[in-house]
Structure formats: structure tokens, C-alpha cells
Amino acid sequence: MRELQERIVRDGKVLSETVLKVDAFLNHQVDPQLTMKIGERFAELFRDQNVTKVVTIEASGIHFAMATAFALGVPFIYAKKKKAVTLTEEVYAAPVHSFTRQETYQISVSKQYLHADDRVLIVDDFLATGAALVGLTQIMKDAGAHLVGIGAVIEKSFQEGRGLLEKEGVRIESLARIKSMSPSGIEFMEPAAI
Ligand code: 5GP
Fold it and tell me: Which of 8, 94, 137, 192 is packed most tightly, with the most Cβ within 10 A?
């Protein structure tokens, strides 16, 4: 998505060769117009897939899931991050290891809202190591839901996330694919077609 790539170049800050800060427009201060366009783009890419729910992880995926679900006319769910899930709670849960924070946390989704007849589109802000999205795909499997694909706003293609998920046969659509980055510049995998 050309507008997104241009915005990353203009307002993103490359903190190191692996960390991109997009706090100015994506995940602290948020540009609502751009967010809605991102949602419309994901909706367009997956429109023919009869999506029944959009799923993300709190907190940084929520506004993209909201925009996508709004464009598709379906509800969205955000998986909750919890330290411990009590056995009495009726949830699907999976562990996620955060490489940036060096900790493992649980994500969970209530069994009330995810069912075997759901066709799920997962949306998130970043596809990096893939740990968070692998955790979420595990929850989809446990629920017996059909995963139609993953929409990532920004993919750091030099990290292993895409490979891990593609190995499982998951369709991935990323709106900006970063091939490499350093404080002197960002290189994208391909020029944006639209
Ligand atoms: P994963 O490594 O599991 O694919 O990424 C987990 C989460 O870490 C992403 O959803 C995103 O919120 C955060 N993350 C990963 N890499 C970056 C990055 O370069 N910049 C920012 N701002 N967040 C990131």
C-alpha cells in the first residue's frame, strides 16, 4: 500500500536493524484516516472469503481489526493477554513468547465468541518473528474455526514470521513488506502496486 509505505518512510523511526518505531501514526498516536484505509484494503483482499470474524491481539492490533471488521460488516475479537488463565474460565488459550520483552505470556479468547463454523481473518500491526500470530492460529485450530488468512499491516520480511506461517499453509497479505532497514533507510520488498 503506497500511502502506508510513504508514511513509514516519512514518520517511522528505525531504532535498530530489527526495530521500527511507528508511534507517530500507527501504535501510539493513531492516524484514523490511514487506519480506515488499511481496514478497507484488508476487506478488499479477503472480501470473497466469507469472513465471519476478524481476530487480533490486544492492544496494538485493535484499531486495525475494528477498521477491517467494519468494512466487512462482521464483529471482531481481540485476544486478551493474561498472566494466568484460571481453569474455570471457558477460554481457548495459547502461550506467546515475546522476543522484544523476553517473556512468555498467555493469550486467550472466550469460547463464547469463537466457534467451529467461524471463518476467521486475523489482523495485526506487525508480522515479525510470528510468535504472536502462531499463538493465535493455535487458538483457531483449538476452536476448529477456519482461518482464511492473516493481514499484517507491516511485515519485517527479514524475520522468520512469514516462513513459519506459510509452512502451515496460511495465506498472508502484508500491506508494507520491509526487506531491510537501518537508520540510514528502509528498503521494501517491492514497490507498492496501489
Ligand atoms: P512477533 O515477533 O510475535 O511477530 O511480533 C509481536 C508483536 O511485537 C507485534 O504484533 C508488534 O506489536 C510488536 N513488534 C514486533 N516488531 C516490532 C517493531 O519493529 N516495531 C514495533 N513498533 N512493534 C513491533
Answer: 8
**Residue 164, SS3?**
helix
Is 129 flagged in the annotation as binding?
A: yes
Strand (E) or helix (H) holding 131: helix 131-143
For residue 75, the SS3 value is coil
Please tell me the distance between residue 126's alpha carbon and the centre of ligand 1 in angstroms. 5
Q: What is the pLDDT of residues 71-88, one digit of tens each?
A: 999 999 999 997 555 555
- To the question of pTM greater than 0.80 for the whole model, the response is yes
CATH number for the region 2-188 comes to 3.40.50.2020
Q: What are the structural domain ranges in the chain?
A: 2-188
- This complex has an ipTM of 0.97
In degrees, rounded to 5, the angle at the alpha carbon of residue 84 between the alpha carbons of residues 81 and 89 is 90
Taking CB atoms and a 6 Å cutoff, what residues make up the pocket around ligand 1?
Answer: 19-22, 27, 60, 99-100, 124-132, 161
